[in-house]
């Protein structure tokens, strides 16, 4: 077994050389001693030029020796020091959620998912309206914290698939408080999660609420259809998919149109004759300016 060496960081108290001509206001000139590294670094601004240069030399020498003694360990210490200044999760939540990203590839059992939902709701409560800080606290690099992690946003649907519809709704509401811009996105997922969990009345009530709140949102319509498919209401689902298809064609959004068509085909509600008619209409509008889809993530 390879022995791992410790980082050789000299933390002994620093006493700088006596000054031939003490300068008023310089803490080193009056013989003050400094803790290393923080106290010495903070005191430099008040030092005379000679003592400031000496302090810089002490800091540089000790840090270079520490880095050379164990480069990997020194890098880890530096990273930890930086992260102490960044947003973080309290109450040990970072450790408890450490393996959550793995859910993107292997969805855990319902008991574990329920516990994860509880932890996420608790964690989110510390960051209302602070999406980027929440992302950083969960481990994202600050420069890449423009959105919540995929595993977290996907948790709502994972919970629904595990029969945990109530937990999915709570998580969706908690994440909406962190990132209000995601509300329509999450509201659509919550409807599907409720339906997949077999909560028919709650799902239908949420569909009506969503359509009142987001009447012109393509994904709200599409997920209303997805929820009704899960509930066995294919005619109701077809009506929503058809409306979503019309929305996509009105905006010449080819990607969204493909999603709506695929849904209709899957439930046997789109005939070859209708396909030809829709394709002809699409060709007639192809010279119009295309509007980008609000959501590029396939759901």
Structure, described:
With 299 residues, this protein is mostly helical. Helix content is 59%, strand content 0%. The radius of gyration is 29 Å and the shape is elongated. The protein starts with 37 loop residues before the first helix and ends in a 15-residue tail after the last helix.
CATH superfamily of the largest domain: Tetratricopeptide repeat domain
Distance between the termini: 48 Å
Could you spell the SSE succession in H and E letters? HHHHHHHHHHHHHHH
What's the alpha carbon Rg, rounded to whole Å? Answer: 29 Å
* Overall number of strands: 0
Task: Give the CA-based shape.
Answer: elongated
Notable characteristics:
299 residues, mainly alpha, 2 domains, 15 helices, 59% helix
Could you outline the blueprint of secondary structure elements for this entry?
Layout: H1 38-43, H2 49-69, H3 71-84, H4 93-96, H5 110-124, H6 131-137, H7 150-153, H8 155-161, H9 165-178, H10 183-196, H11 200-213, H12 218-230, H13 234-250, H14 254-266, H15 272-284
In short:
It is built from 15 helices and no strands. The chain has helices at 38-43, 49-69, 71-84, 93-96, 110-124, 131-137, 150-153, 155-161, 165-178, 183-196, 200-213, 218-230, 234-250, 254-266, 272-284.
